[in-house]
Amino acid sequence: MNKTIFTVILGFLLLNSCQKMGSTPQSDSKSEIENEGQHLNQLTQDPISANQNSDSFTSRVISTIGQDKLICPPNYIKVPGNFSLGTSEFCLMQYEARKSEKGHIPISNSTNSLYRNITFAEAKEACLSLNSHADFSKYHRVGKFSLMTNSQWMAVARNIESNKRDNRIVDSQDTSCYKRGNVGMEVIPDYKSRCGYGAGSSEINRANQLNFHTLTNGEKIMAFSGNLYEFVRWSEASDTAPLCPNAPNEWVPVKDIHRWCNYPQNSFMPNDQKLTHLDGIGEAYLSSTGIVPFRSGFWLSYSVAGIYLLNFCPLATKDNSLGFRCAYDKN
To answer: How far apart are CA 177 and CA 195, in angstroms?
Structure first.
């Protein structure tokens, strides 16, 4: 099967309510890091002690150390600001959102069930609901929880891209690429899933080094590429992206998005504009009907998954492969 035929098939499947695509991946032990299976303490052990309720972060007292220091809730990471993207320092869930034991409260940990199969509006409301649970009077600088924006996603992606030492590896094909996590293992040569692996389904907690990225400040984020697609808000001003009537309705290189759609380059472009899916950054599916942006890739996204994957769905889309993360920022 050539690349063109595969691209058309993959794009068609995803366009139809973002359904899961491809067949069950075959195991490929060569793509696994040698210490696969060893627990990564900083990822698999939560800062919240086992005898605490998993919802306790919503009422935990945050220390007021320093007038200008942003203190993140437990299991959130601190993301450096990015001047060119217009983002200040913010906190982000280290893990994909999970469901608390008390119901539909999104929490960040490595053990609870993934919060997925919801619409964009439901994901947005879930993050906003944290503002009624958090004890803001205990915070020195009052902040807010919200579904992360596309600019915040780009701030993380560009930070990961800049930290090549920790995030770019040599894979089983002796090629260098960015880690892509649980994205499935393909057999089509042109689309071999470089720097990723296939678990066959989404995962709660897998101690695989391909599953996490390290920011320049040393913070680690889990499954930022692969495992689940993740909803984002297009901007602070607008939840949804403008329609792209000239979209080809197929996968294209990220750097070529501007050929069809009038999106700001800061909304999709890597720092290094020469990067492609072969570098593990993903691709973009340009839809003439989709307005809800989502990023990352899911467990059968294969080579189109990556930290810069960009795709769009209709507003009412709900799928088992779609999840989200909440951000915490100063007001």
So the answer is: 6
pTM: predicted TM-score of the whole model, two decimal places: 0.79
Alpha carbon distance 236, 240 (integer Å): 10
Give dist(CA 319, CA 154) in Å, integer: 23
Rg (CA), the chain: 19
Tokens for 171, please give them.
């894979």
Distance CA 33, CA 29 (A): 9
Based on the domain organization, do 294 and 200 belong to the same domain? yes
Instruction: DSSP for 221-265, please give it.
Output: EESSSSSSEEE-BS-SS-SSPPP-TT--SEEE-GGGGGGT----G
pLDDT band at 134 (very low <50, low <70, confident <90, very high): low
Please give the tally of structural domains in the chain: 2
Within this chain, do residues 277 and 213 fall inside the same structural domain, yes or no? yes
Tokens in use for 239? 């939840």
Together in a domain, 284 and 259:
yes
> Are 297 and 229 in the same domain?
yes
Q: What is the pLDDT, as a whole number, of residue 157?
A: 98
Residues 69 and 186 in one domain: no
Res 66: pLDDT: 42
pLDDT > 90? residue 243? yes
Residue 187 lies in domain = 3-9+18-39+168-325
**78: β partners:** 91
Q: What is the DSSP string of 154-223?
A: HHHHHHHHH-HHHHEEE-TTS-EEE--EE-----SGGG--TTEE--SS--S----GGGEEE-TTS-EEES
In the predicted structure, residue 12 carries a pLDDT above the cut 70: no
Reported confidence tier of residue 39, pLDDT bands at 50, 70, 90: very low
**Mean pLDDT across the chain:** 79
Are 50 and 110 in contact by the 8 Å Cβ rule? The answer is no
CA distance 59 to 39: 29
Burial 135-145 (b: 16+ CB within 10 A, else e): eeeebeeebeb
Q: If residue 7 lies in a helix (H) or strand (E), which one and from where to where?
A: helix 3-15
Structure tokens at 329: 């920022």
